[in-house]
Write a sequence for this structure.
């Protein structure tokens, strides 16, 4: 009996313990539930909200980049991503047909999307704004706006524009002006499902994005296209590995065109990134230093020793043997011996500082990412050969931009200008934020020295090494250059050269500076043979453009005065007097001259640029009236005109 009573007592105890535990657990659950529901309700509600909703940045529409005439070079367009919620579709067949029609996707992909077992499907790709109207009213199909960067003229401007990756500017103007262009992002709240994925069509705007500002460049799209076409044609014709071309305005330093071609691509901007040894295009700056420091005058003579001279263990040679030459003649025929001998009168410090003043060995200030400063070693690092080498463009490396700006300094009377690529910066509301003014870096040489060097550069084009750059309508000043390409393992690569030419026109009052460089052209690789014709074709095309950034009235006045002067007086220079015959006019096929007259050729049906180039080659001035295509000319085909007369090209409206 006592054993049974003992068992009952144990059972009762266990039941009481179990009941107590159950009651305790219940109290804990009730207490915790009360704590959550009554005291922590706000906290847990916010956490639930956070899990099912997310705040995400809303990118702003990136600002537009324009050329100098307001033509868009880079702009952002709102395109759309398309998502479907298959369970919301009222008529899957109709939805599939709408997707095929609006998006251009295959019927198979459309059917797969509308019949998916997933709660929603995101279609691949971005679609233009037109799809918004085409898919309007389709329940279950949701569109999400997404700004896309668009380059209407990508091949022409890829190098200096750069690109945009994940809303960040990379390279070129996109990177340089990123803080202005990118704008201020907004915010939106988007609903998410239990897996954390966004639910299409369920988003709420918290803060509207503010669009980016607008950047207007100094580049002229028409000139950029001309430069690209002329360079591309030259690269193909000479089988060069690539090349560079720049067009600038010497008075302001404005960059009107800059193109680099490498392996058929224009994405690399080697005009500012890649220095090279310039060779003879550096000689005018050596002559300017000689004149500025009073070492010699243009009329002073030097014995070129039949084109063979040894200095400090190195032999300097000329392509053609000469005897005694004046300094002016040495520059005109590009005598290595003559220029390097004359430069021996310069102290290393004077020679170095003169080249440095022209902008070699320092960055130009264009402020685009990756600009190279080139190489110009200080005199303490020179060898016994350095002075002679530098005088003719070796032991120094420069970028095409540096070379172009240096020739700009000669063209504008001795003032080195900072390159100007940004013309104006405006906010999204149109407020002008910045309008950079032309800035002179320094005066390099006196106006008199620049003028005297330029007079010789005219002779380089008229009868020296640059005759292939000559125009029949305006005088051109310029200099060719041919330099060897360095080998990867040191020294120079056998049979490989840079061919270059720098020129400006009209020589009397320069409005444009043009620089061309070809990398390893095949065949006739000398600068005067390979690069100079590119300059001529570019200038002819610029003159033929409908609205080039040049003063046509000033050109016409120069042409008239030059025509009168050529009939009465010889061309005279400070230390040089030459009686020159009128240069022969090279006429296109089908034209002729009679007794000094030229005959207007047939121009109907050809492009404005081709017709203008053809007439410029004949020494005629060109006006353009109407629009393309050309239907005739005034005076008409077959009319006899004197060089210097004007022909008006008649477009369709003008007829």
């Amino acid at each position: 009996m006592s054993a049974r009573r003992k068992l009952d007592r144990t059972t009762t105890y266990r039941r009481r313990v179990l009941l107590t535990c159950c009651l305790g657990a219940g109290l804990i659950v009730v207490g915790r539930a009360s704590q959550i529901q009554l005291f922590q309700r706000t906290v847990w509600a916010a956490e639930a909200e956070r899990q099912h909703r997310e705040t995400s940045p809303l990118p702003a529409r990136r600002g537009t980049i324009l050329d100098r005439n307001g033509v868009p070079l880079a702009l952002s367009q709102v395109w759309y991503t398309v998502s479907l919620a298959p369970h919301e579709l009222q008529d899957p067949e109709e939805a599939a047909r709408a997707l095929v029609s609006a998006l251009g996707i295959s019927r198979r992909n459309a059917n797969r999307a509308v019949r998916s077992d997933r709660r929603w499907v995101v279609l691949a790709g971005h679609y233009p704004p037109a799809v918004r109207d085409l898919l309007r009213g389709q329940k279950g199909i949701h569109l999400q706006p997404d700004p896309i960067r668009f380059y209407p003229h990508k091949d022409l401007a890829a190098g200096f524009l750069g690109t945009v990756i994940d809303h960040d500017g990379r390279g070129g103007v996109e990177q340089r002006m990123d803080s202005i262009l990118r704008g201020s992002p907004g915010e939106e709240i988007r609903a998410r499902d239990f897996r954390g994925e966004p639910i299409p069509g369920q988003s709420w705007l918290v803060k509207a994005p503010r669009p980016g500002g607008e950047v207007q460049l100094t580049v002229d799209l028409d000139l950029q296209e001309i430069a690209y076409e002329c360079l591309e044609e030259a690269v193909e014709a000479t089988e060069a590995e690539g090349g560079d071309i720049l067009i600038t305005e010497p008075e302001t330093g404005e960059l009107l065109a800059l193109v680099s071609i490498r392996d058929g691509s224009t994405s690399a901007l080697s005009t500012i990134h890649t220095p090279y040894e310039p060779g003879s295009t550096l000689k005018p700056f050596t002559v300017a230093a000689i004149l500025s420091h009073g070492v010699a005058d243009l009329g002073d003579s030097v014995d070129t020793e039949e084109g063979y001279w040894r200095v400090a263990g190195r032999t300097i040679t000329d392509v053609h043997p000469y005897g005694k030459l004046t300094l002016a003649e040495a520059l005109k025929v590009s005598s290595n011996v003559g220029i390097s001998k004359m430069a021996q009168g310069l102290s290393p410090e004077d020679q170095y500082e003169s080249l440095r003043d022209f902008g070699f060995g320092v960055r130009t200030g264009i402020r685009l990412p990756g600009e190279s400063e080139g190489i110009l070693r200080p005199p303490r690092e020179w060898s016994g050969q350095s002075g002679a080498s530098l005088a003719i463009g070796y032991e120094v490396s420069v970028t095409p931009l540096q070379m172009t700006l240096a020739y700009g300094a000669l063209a504008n009377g001795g003032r080195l200008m900072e390159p100007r690529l940004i013309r104006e910066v405006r906010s999204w509301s149109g407020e002008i934020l910045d309008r950079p003014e032309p800035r002179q870096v320094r005066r390099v040489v006196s106006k008199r020295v620049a003028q005297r060097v330029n007079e010789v550069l005219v002779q380089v084009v008229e009868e020296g090494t640059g005759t292939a750059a000559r125009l029949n309508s305006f005088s051109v000043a310029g200099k060719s250059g041919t330099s060897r390409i360095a080998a990867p393992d040191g020294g120079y690569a056998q049979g490989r050269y840079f061919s270059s030419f720098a020129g400006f026109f009209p020589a009397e009052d320069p409005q444009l500076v043009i620089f061309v460089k070809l990398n390893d052209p095949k065949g006739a690789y000398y600068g005067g043979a390979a690069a100079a014709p590119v300059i001529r074709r570019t200038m002819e095309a610029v003159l033929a453009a409908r609205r080039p950034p040049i003063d046509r009235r000033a050109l016409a006045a120069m042409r008239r005065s030059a025509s009168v002067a050529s009939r009465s007086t010889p061309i005279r220079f400070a230390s040089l007097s030459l009686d020159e015959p009128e240069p022969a006019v090279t006429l296109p096929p089908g034209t002729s001259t009679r007794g000094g007259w030229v005959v207007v050729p047939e121009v109907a049906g050809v492009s404005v640029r081709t017709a203008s180039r053809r007439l410029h080659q004949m020494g005629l001035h060109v006006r353009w009236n109407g629009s393309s295509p050309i239907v005739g000319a005034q005076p008409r085909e077959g009319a006899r005109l004197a060089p210097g007369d004007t022909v008006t090209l008649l477009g369709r409206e003008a007829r």
Summary: The radius of gyration is 36 Å. The CA atoms of residues 6 and 41 lie 50 Å apart.
